[in-house]
Amino acid sequence: MSKIGKQPVTVPQGVNITIDASNVSVSGPKGNLSFAFRPEVAIELKEDQIIVSRKFETKFAKSLHGLTRSVLANMVKGVTDGHEKTLELVGVGYKAAKQGDNLVLNVGYSHPVVIEQVPGVQLETKENKIIVTGADKILVGEIAAKIRRVRPPEPYKGKGIKYMGEVIRRKAGKTVKAGA
Fold this sequence. Notes:
Elements: E1 9-10, E2 16-19, E3 23-28, E4 31-36, E5 41-46, E6 49-54, H1 59-80, E7 83-90, E8 95-99, E9 102-106, E10 113-115, E11 121-126, E12 129-134, H2 137-150, E13 160-163
Antiparallel strand pairs: 1-6, 2-3, 3-4, 5-6, 7-12, 7-13, 8-9, 9-10, 11-12
């Protein structure tokens, strides 16, 4: 049995869950999310808990068991509390600013880089930080990764866009040979 898959997902007050033939819809104060699950997995709602079980004992069904439970837990957390990723700008002259709904990054290129607003995700800037928030964990992670790809941190000086708390492995620079 899957350690993660066998744990029930607790549904807090104010969250509505609808289970159709192969679709789960979760709605709450932060938004609405839906997930199409595979036929190898069964989802049922008992009182205030979601229970995920597998219909078959195949390797594929076992791999989907924990995954489906994790996705449902992230959906419930997203519609109640929301998900957040924070990115840091490290470098002299690197800055981010909101221009309407878009995010404009000045990160050492000859031109500013514009990241367009995606429905369901909010972008904020504070000093040298970019905060990406939303109900859908997958979408928040994708947008944060897209912003980070604009200028990933380099290993010599650590300049670039990095996640908050991310440790950048640093390399030593060139050294001058003695006696040359």
